[in-house]
Amino acid sequence: MKLAIIAANGQAGQAIAKEAVERGHQVTAIVRSENKSAAQDVLQKDAFDLTKEDLAGFDVVVNAFGAWTPETLPGHSRLAEHLATILADSPTRLLVVGGAGSLYLDESQTAMLKDAPDFPAEYLPIAEAMGAGLEIYRQATAVNWTYISPAADFDAEGPKTGTYTLAGEFFQVNDEGESYISYADYAVALVDIAEKGGYSKERISVFA
């Protein structure tokens, strides 16, 4: 397949690029500066300046954009709106590296993980920003998107085991009561979804 990875220089982007290239896919890094990922091709451009033509011809576009500072957090919603516009009515699939904070805690779908009393305060702004982006994708009925939330403990340094569990909209833990996934195993799950298809216009989650 032909994949494009927005923010391929980030930790998630690099893990996904490495996994996709190792499986024989043709990967283009969409980055603002010099490419640091394993991608074979590079489109050096700001994600907010991408055009419909830039993304035409890709089987899958991965949005691995991440912002952490107060002034950049609105970028999650801005980019969601931009991608929803330029990918409308396109056959290209959009896979979004999401966040865990917007996962629901119960079947009523009223309380989210970010609303829990013990949710770390320092992560609340990013959880709310990414959750706002998810709501934009939910309205993007003309886009073939899938939003993939990682576990609460999303470990950049963790090993690649090649195993994972897919879940839906609800916060899940493993048999040890942990919500954990390494970036490497998250990348395995995302590339599997890219290859196998499914989950159109759905938010799913992955944990080890």
TrEMBL record:
It comes from the Bacteria. InterPro entries: NAD(P)-bd_dom, NAD(P)-bd_dom_sf, Polyketide_Oxido-like. Residues 8-194 form the NAD(P)-binding domain. Gene3D superfamilies: NAD(P)-binding Rossmann-like Domain (3.40.50.720). Signal peptide: none annotated. This is NADH-flavin reductase. It comes from Streptococcus porcorum. The lineage of its organism: Bacteria, Bacillati, Bacillota, Bacilli, Lactobacillales.
